[in-house]
DNA sequence: CACTCCCGCCAATTA
DNA sequence: TAATTGGCGGGAGTG
């Protein structure tokens, strides 16, 4: 039809809205020019658009007659067509096909004609994708409704979704302002980040997570109990958000839309099935499982999907799973978001959008300054991540409640994500109802505080430095209590005091492995704002010490240096991967493959990432190769173990996540402080500790909330270890913490033994700083040599680190019960801090990004000294204690 | 029959 | 209180 119309359209179209527009004030962009002379004709019946039609419509609106929908429909159709023709831009994808029907049908408006998707297209056609910054177009709901000939209710459906992506914002009662897609990339990025946090976990192991959740969550739950336990109401949700208003309503469409988008962004495959999405969303809500609810959710998802489809962000596909073919949607929008500005920084509200031309090319990707204003707000939002919502609301302007809502929403979203993943898992697994997830989800709220942890990392740095000099292991150990550093850590947690302060251990989901690296920053989270307060001073220190924290670093790192290329590649790879999988849902399916997503995905990307990191920060490239090797080896192991984890699928890797990681890595200096591998199941499987020396703070971070952890040791699954070199630092054992010591030592010994068993891989336990390059993989290092003057890392370490990261996901603690090691201490500080910049610690989770999302992030930051690290890592090959 | 999802009642929120 | 928003689910259109 379109085509058909077009030919004629010219004449016809003219009208559309123009009159209206004019009257209205929309800022319509000039682009679309309006008008054409009119013509009429052709279809007498429907009466295509003509200028008059508008009038008619309006009139009809007024009159009851209007009601004839059919007529209207007919009328509208033409409109549609015309519009499309006019503004092809809005839709690229082939809507046309559908419409192809032609005029014949015009008459018969079948349901399709009335579809929300079509309506949305029409709606979008009215406004430029990239409006000039200067012009502000306002949208009057009434007008639009009348113009488009639909009830207002329908317009709300569209606008709500658009609002969730910030294409529009509500300014007043019946008024919305059109922003276009300038901010879209940022919005998506934010959503992606938020999604990773929450959903990322999904990817990883579920079970473990749960454990963690419990622990963490316990406290939180307490606060939140309502929601889960009782569905009380809507409240439940709100609770999460914490304060602010939670209008009950918020929940729906807008949030649902964001979550839905998050799922896509987090998903490797970029395909999300409706049922999964529905489940996830429901969970959030927490409702009981109702079947009816499910149906309702699905209905809404269709509504959202229609709008997103109109935006060209997704398309409908079918995935065939075990059970059969299921409807699903595939993300066809931008996947990567460029740097973005680092949000925070300085953007002032500059504002001008890029010229469209540029945009066209880059459009999505560009992060440039467009739309800062909002972003700022959002940024907070993003950064806030997990709980952000609670506390933060950056926006100064209270204006519209809606904004607040969004913030809240974000937080909610985050929470949701956590839930979702669980759910997903469950779903995949079979069971359905899980309420369990809740805790976690809930956490977020409280979690915020937890999240706040992030700051820690920063803090850490500084601390480290301070310590560095001294950096004796013991110090680290003492860390918990003692040094300032310690306190810092604790604080960071502050919100949570830690579950167990004393405890040395953390539990992690079995499946995953975690690596802790010294100096990690969490880059990603960088956004998170560290809490200003806590961090504040520290942060300052940190900054001083390490200039590069946060965003800046990253970006710079990435860009600069060799790493860059690598980065680029990675993404590409990722993309590819993504594309490949159409069918499977990334989220859901998992099953087999397993395991550590990291390994999987990463080999390529991961490696590169790792490398980058090294190179960048360390400048030690060599390790990479070895690392890779290690990784691979590890992977298998993981896989085995992972059986349980059904979820993580290799394939799935979160592309984005990886990317992020890589970035992070780059930033970071990397040395992993600890490596943790989780045994899949039981203890037996893994076990290793590494003593890492870390600054306590770092540890704590990692833990994420967990109690403070300074862990001297890490348990790693033997297998995993085998794959990579382990390092232990004996020093720790010593008494850092009084308690831990004993246990610790024991643990250590045990672990090692295990490793030995496993031992294909050499394990090293370093008592101190020995470096053994030996690590199987390691070799390459030499050349590059880490020689990290600054860092001190031994090559080995670096390698190991990198390897670790890549490979396995690290799991931090396991079930405590099992190991319960105590970690004595924290880690010693890292002397290295010398290099401020580099000192980031990164904490990567393997696989997807972090299942333990929070953890990672939190952790991210630690910094470690190379020395400390080295110690840990380095070791004599032999085990033993 | 299953999948979509339009339609509009009516409650929650706002003005 | 009236108007605006928007949750929700019946049930119809489509394949």
Question: Could you explain how this protein is built, in words?
Answer:
The strands form three sheets. The protein has a three-stranded antiparallel β-sheet. Strands 4-6-5 form a three-stranded antiparallel β-sheet. With 881 residues, it is mainly α. Helix content is 52%, strand content 5%. Helix 9 (152-164) packs across helix 16, helix 27 packs antiparallel against helix 28 and helix 31 (696-703) packs antiparallel against helix 38 (853-860). The chain has 39 helices and nine strands. The termini are far apart. It has a domain at 116-207 and 250-331: Arc Repressor Mutant, subunit A, CATH 1.10.10. Residues 1-106, 204-246 and 340-881 have low confidence and may be disordered. The structure holds a DNA duplex (15 and 15 nucleotides).
DSSP strand (E) fraction? 5-15%
**What is the makeup of the main sheet?**
3 strands, antiparallel
Number of strands: 9
Poorly predicted runs are 1-106, 204-246, 340-881
Spatial ordering of strands, largest sheet? 1-3-2
Report the top-level CATH class of the domain at 116-207 and 250-331.
Mainly Alpha
Report the helical percentage: 40-55%
Work out the radius of gyration: 27 Å
Individual helix count: 39
Oligomer: single chain
**CATH architecture descriptor text of the domain at 116-207 and 250-331:** Orthogonal Bundle
Distance between the termini: 78 Å
The computed structural class is mainly alpha
What value does the average pLDDT take?
A: 43
CATH superfamily of the domain at 116-207 and 250-331: Winged helix-like DNA-binding domain superfamily/Winged helix DNA-binding domain
CATH topology of the domain at 116-207 and 250-331: Arc Repressor Mutant, subunit A
Shape: elongated
Protein name: Transcription factor E2F7
Keywords: Activator, Cell cycle, DNA-binding, Nucleus, Repressor, Transcription, Transcription regulation
InterPro entries: E2F, E2F_WHTH_DNA-bd_dom, WH-like_DNA-bd_sf, WH_DNA-bd_sf
Region (Disordered): 1-51, 63-93, 224-243, 340-361, 381-408, 475-496, 528-665, 843-881
């Amino acid at each position: 039809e379109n085509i058909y119309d077009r030919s004629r359209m010219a004449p016809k179209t003219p009208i559309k809205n123009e009159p209206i527009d004019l009257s209205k004030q929309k800022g319509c962009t000039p682009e679309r020019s309006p008008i054409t002379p009119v013509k009429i004709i052709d279809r007498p019946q429907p009466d295509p658009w003509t200028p008059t039609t508008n009038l008619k419509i309006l009139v009809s609106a007024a009159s009851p007659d209007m009601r004839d929908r059919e007529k209207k429909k007919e009328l509208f159709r033409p409109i549609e067509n015309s519009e499309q023709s006019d503004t092809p831009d809005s839709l690229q994808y082939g809507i046309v096909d559908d419409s192809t029907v032609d005029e014949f049908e015009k008459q018969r408006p079948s349901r399709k004609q009335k579809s929300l998707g079509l309506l949305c297209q029409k709606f979008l056609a009215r406004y430029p994708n990239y409006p000039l910054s200067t012009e502000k177009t306002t949208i009057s709901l009434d007008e639009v409704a009348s113009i488009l000939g639909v009830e207002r209710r329908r317009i709300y459906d569209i606008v709500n979704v658009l609002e969730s992506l910030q294409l529009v914002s509500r300014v007043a009662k019946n008024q919305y302002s059109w922003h276009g897609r300038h901010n879209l990339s940022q919005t998506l990025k934010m959503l992606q980040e938020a999604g990773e946090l929450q959903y990322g976990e999904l990817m990883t192991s579920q079970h473990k997570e749960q454990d963690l959740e419990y622990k963490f969550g316990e406290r939180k739950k307490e606060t939140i109990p309502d929601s889960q336990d009782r569905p009380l109401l809507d409240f439940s949700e709100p609770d999460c958000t914490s304060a602010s208003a939670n209008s009950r309503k918020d929940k729906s469409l807008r949030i649902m839309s964001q979550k839905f988008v998050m799922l896509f962004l987090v998903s490797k495959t970029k395909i999300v099935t409706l049922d999964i999405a529905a489940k996830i969303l429901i969970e959030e809500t927490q409702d009981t499982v109702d079947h009816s609810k499910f149906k309702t959710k699905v209905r809404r998802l269709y509504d959202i999907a229609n709008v997103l489809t109109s935006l060209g962000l997704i398309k409908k596909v079918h995935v065939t799973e075990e059970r059969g073919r299921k409807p699903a949607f595939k993300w066809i929008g931008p996947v990567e978001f460029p740097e973005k500005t680092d949000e925070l920084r300085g953007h002032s509200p500059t504002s001008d959008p890029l010229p469209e031309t540029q945009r066209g090319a880059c459009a999505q990707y560009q992060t440039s300054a467009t739309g800062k204003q909002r972003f700022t707000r959002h940024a907070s939002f993003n950064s806030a991540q997990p709980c952000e919502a609670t506390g933060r609301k950056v926006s100064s302007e209270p204006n519209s409640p809606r904004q607040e809502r969004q913030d809240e929403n974000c937080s909610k979203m985050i929470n949701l994500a956590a839930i979702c993943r669980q759910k997903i898992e469950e779903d995949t697994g079979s069971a359905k109802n899980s309420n369990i997830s809740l805790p976690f989800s809930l956490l977020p709220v409280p979690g915020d505080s937890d999240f706040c942890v992030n700051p820690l990392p920063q803090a850490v740095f500084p601390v480290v430095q301070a310590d560095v000099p001294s950096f004796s292991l013991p110090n680290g150990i003492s860390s918990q209590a003692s040094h300032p550093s310690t306190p810092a850590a604790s604080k960071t947690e502050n919100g949570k005091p830690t579950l167990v302060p004393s405890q040395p251990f953390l539990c992690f989901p079995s499946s995953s492995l975690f690596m802790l690296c010294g100096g990690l920053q969490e880059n990603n989270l960088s956004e998170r704002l560290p809490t200003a307060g806590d961090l504040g001073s520290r942060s300052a220190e940190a900054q001083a010490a390490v200039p590069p924290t946060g965003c800046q670093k990253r970006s710079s790192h990435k860009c600069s240096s060799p790493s860059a290329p690598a980065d680029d590649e990675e993404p590409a790879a990722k993309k590819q991967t993504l594309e490949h999988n159409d069918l499977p849902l990334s989220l859901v399916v998992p099953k087999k493959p397993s395991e550590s997503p990291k390994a999987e995905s990463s080999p390529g990307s991961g490696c590169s990432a790792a490398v980058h990191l090294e190179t960048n920060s360390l400048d030690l490239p060599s390790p990479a190769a070895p690392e890779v090797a290690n990784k691979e080896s590890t992977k298998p192991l993981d896989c085995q173990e992972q059986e349980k984890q059904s979820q993580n699928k290799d394939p799935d890797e979160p592309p984005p996540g990886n990317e992020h990681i890589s970035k992070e890595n780059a930033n970071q200096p990397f040395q992993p402080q600890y490596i943790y591998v989780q045994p899949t199941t039981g203890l037996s499987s893994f076990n290793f500790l590494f003593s890492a020396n870390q600054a306590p703070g770092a540890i704590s971070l990692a833990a994420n909330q967990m109690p403070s952890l300074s862990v001297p040791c890490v348990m790693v699954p033997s297998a995993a270890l085998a794959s990579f070199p382990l390092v232990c630092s004996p020093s720790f054992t010593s008494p850092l913490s009084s308690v831990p010591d004993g246990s610790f030592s024991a643990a250590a010994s045990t672990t090692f033994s295990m490793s030995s068993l496993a031992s294909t891989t050499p394990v090293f336990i370093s008592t101190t700083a020995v470096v053994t390059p030996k690590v199987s993989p390691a070799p390459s290092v030499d050349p590059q040599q880490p020689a990290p003057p600054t860092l001190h890392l031994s090559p080995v370490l670096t390698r190991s680190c990198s390897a670790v990261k890549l490979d396995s996901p690290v799991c931090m603690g396991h079930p405590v019960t099992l190991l319960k090691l105590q970690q004595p201490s924290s880690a010693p500080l890292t002397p290295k801090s010398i290099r401020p910049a580099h000192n980031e610690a990164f904490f990567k989770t393997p696989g997807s990004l972090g299942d333990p999302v929070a953890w990672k992030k939190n952790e991210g930051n630690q910094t470690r000294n190379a020395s400390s690290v080295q110690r840990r890592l380095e070791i004599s090959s032999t085990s033993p204690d």
